[in-house]
Amino acid sequence: MRKKFSTEAKVGVFVILAIALLAYITVDVSQLGWTPGGTYKIYTLMDNAEGVTVKTPVQVAGIPVGTVSGIALTPDRKARVEIELRKDVKLGDDVTAEIRTRGVLGDTYIELFPGRADAQEIAPGGVVGRVKQPADYQQLVRDLSVMTADMKEVTAALKTYTVSEHSYTAEILKSTQVLTANLATFTNTNAANMNAIVNNMRILTDQLRGFSQNSTPEIEASLKRIAEITEKVNSGQGTVGKLLNDPQTAEKTNELLDNINGLTEGIRRIETEVNYHMEYLGSTKDVKNYVGLRFQPRPDKFFLFEVVHDPAPSPSKSTQITSVTTSGGATSTITTETEDFHKVRFSAELGKKFHDVTVRGGLIESTGGFGIDYTKGPVAVQFSAFDFGADRPHLKLLSQLNVTRSLFLVGGLDDFINPQHGLDWFMGAGVRFTDEDIKSLLGTASLAK
Questions:
Q1: Does any domain span residue 121?
Q2: Per the confidence metrics, is the pTM higher than 0.85?
Q3: Is residue 442 scored above 70 in pLDDT?
């Protein structure tokens, strides 16, 4: 006798099958499957974990390897994501995590990118240090909204400029219509004048044609003579032909040009400087002026020409001997000494520079003399000795401070061993301009015009 299943047995079998099917579907949907080897946990810190929840899948190379088991907010307001991975999945400590989406519905998952093969393995409880932040789609939508609003404004502006009654296009069409009407009026009004111009042009053309026909023999003769002269010149006949066809002429011309280029190049290498400075004399309360022109063909050589105006110059003595014969036949000698005070004097000196020391000599304030200068950075000290024909030579010690490239200050002692006056100190200032400065000033003046 066949045994039949009871209703309770059938219900029990159905429930077991339903539970098994539900478990299969759950595992299949979660894309995890059964992990017989167990799992371990690692962590990652993210600035924005939007879309990540518990059970969010974790993949490596597109293969599910774990899930998100927890999310917490750290004290520094970052998302601490706990990831549970299968124990058979080994990752290096240089792994990178990134939040991604897939499908039409935008399912969120975390993709792990393994680093180098020789990297040290990340330990359970380790932290993924490299995180790629996901795209902020809400910000993208906001940007698109702003862009759309801007496009609407641009479209409205274009519509105003091109379609409305007062748009630029309408104004251009109106101006074109007015111009066409003016041209038509001008043509109708000046039709007679235009016809007269055309007739005059026709008459002028006829006259030119007649002149050309009457002058053809003379033109041909002139062209023939020009051709004969050219042929003679090319063949070397005549003075011009010999001059142009002689190879020595070209060589001498090239030599002359080279000499001219060398001369002009040497002139261009000479650096020119114009300077002026004044000295306030402490003993006489006067002002002594200097205007100088300096030529420097080489960095270590120079020539200085200077005009000096001294309101209280030292006298230059001259002796005159006169012979006088008396009525008795006796002869006597009279010696006369005179003093000349020359307020304007001249200097012409040659200088040679040795590192920081410069030696110069020549004419100093209209008498022979020499000088030694020492220059270090913006400071210079100058010692000059001249007028050796007097009782004592004229000695001058000048110190100079270059404030800028063109402005300088001076001060020192002048004729300080002369017993006829006290300590003669002076101080002042001056300016200098090189040829480059003068060119710049001339260029600025021409632009101002």
A1: yes
A2: no
A3: no
Distances (CA, A) of 123 to 43, 120, 131, 426, 449: 11, 9, 18, 87, 81
pLDDT digits (tens, 9 = 90+) for 43-86: 888 887 777 888 888 888 888 888 888 888 888 888 888 888 88
Residue with tokens 């993208």: 140
Q: Calculate the alpha carbon distances from 64 to 28, 52, 96, 239 in Å.
A: 11, 15, 16, 104
Task: Tell me the mean pLDDT in the region 22-26.
Answer: 71
* Residues 35, 89 within the same domain: yes
Q: Which domain holds residue 429?
A: 271-314+341-448
d(CA 70, CA 378): 74
**Tally of domains in the chain:** 4
Please tell me whether residues 286 and 393 are part of one structural domain: yes
Q: Is residue 198 part of a domain?
A: no
Cβ(374)–Cβ(393) below 8 Å? no
Question: What residues does 351 pair with on adjacent strands?
Answer: 302, 360
Given this model, what pLDDT does residue 150 score?
Answer: 83
